[in-house]
Amino acid sequence: MMRAAVIQFPGSNCDRDMAVAIRDITGADTSLVWHRESVLPSGLDLIAIPGGFSYGDYLRSGAMAARSPVMQAVIAAAGRGVPVLGVCNGFQILTEAGLLPGALMRNAGIRFVCRTVGLTVENNQSMFTSGYSAGEKIHIPVAHHDGNFFADDATLDRLEGEGRVAFRYAEPVNGSARNIAGVLNDAGNVLGMMPHPERMIEAMQGGSDGRRLFEGLIREIA
Amino acid sequence: MKTRIFVTLKNGVLDPQGKAIHHAIEGLGFSGVHDVRAGRLIEIEHEPGLSKADLESMCTKLLANMVIENFEIEQA
User: TM spans, by residue (chain B) (predicted)?
Assistant: First the structure.
């Protein structure tokens, strides 16, 4: 049976939704792991870093969480090729931890943005995006204050050239460089994205475009 | 002993907060302000023996995000 862990930080608030999405869609044995742990459950097939406001966004969004004990274990697991999915605050934490390039800055419009946005699937060859077709338009909600992806031009060119832009906003949402909504690491086993796929997994939620991320993932892992 | 650390956005990095503060300053009727950039001041009380290298290491590992920020260390 597939095994997954969702990391909980003080201030995480999408941890349970993420665990439910993973458990319901993939059937994985999914455990919640507190940030003080320095060891992860053995034999993990997936690690998810959920959304929220870890440590109250003190210093910078994700900055404190990225230095918590469990992240050393997450970094080591990512290095061994374990898939790591960071959503929203999870994306911020992954950039702060150095697992993904760039930084997520305050939205260009200053305001918190909370709505369903259109996304384009830029790369459907990754283990996280194989459930979509290339160039497909999907709809997934965002809810963030710091989703404005920044990296220098050389880094952005490299990300685009290597197919590491997984998702792009169909229209400007938060000032993100080149409308980037989600990026992969160079090995392709770490994805960070601001939109919340775990909030779009059944019709009751207004759509199920997020569901295919998890369905694709389980096919890739199985 | 006290050290002050100033964390500021790198040149060329857009500062939406600075821009909003600028607009608010103009809204209060002040004129002649060309630009506003917002940063962060961190004051650290420490033993006199703490090295500059350790302070720099704190900055690069935690206090500043070197992708977007610079830091300046000011020792009293």
Answer: none
